[in-house]
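User: Run a structure prediction on this.
Assistant: Running it now.
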Amino acid sequence: MGGIASPGQLRVAYLRWAAVTVPAIVLLGTLSGFVANSGPGNPWYAALVKPAIMPPGWAFGAAWTVLYIMMGLALAMVLNARGARGRGAAITIFLLQLALNLAWSPLFFAFHHTVPAFVLIVAIFVLAAVTTALFWRVRAGAGALLLPYLAWLVFASILNWQICTLNPNADSLVPQGGDTQVTL
């Protein structure tokens, strides 16, 4: 057998990777939000003063679903690029930024730490920018798929910062009727 795969074989291999990476990343993102009780149903979050540019609650779920799908497709492209220079570093940095991404919701929504969450989202942006550059070197399409993620991270950082500014005591805010604080 020859060592060169046909375009059809490469496409099938990519689809196999995508069949794993897309659902895995969407599931992990969903679990992170669920465990953290993220969104408008969270009494602590509901009690916060929101910035004027805050989109409706449903927009976050829709945006993150699309972004996680695009991240999964980008990762599949890089995983499928066996032998590509820089592939290992790209995958490693991707997984690191994904782990930080998944930690943001619990930090913000469950532990109510708005300032550390802001610092975390800035770190996520930096690592996502590095990931985008590394992915671009492996496969330009993979890097391009991460550009909307970078844009959303900028917007989410602005929202996070504005929430910090509008709610200086957010870390200690306890809503009436219960506490969503997680204790370990």
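The chain has one domain: 8-169.
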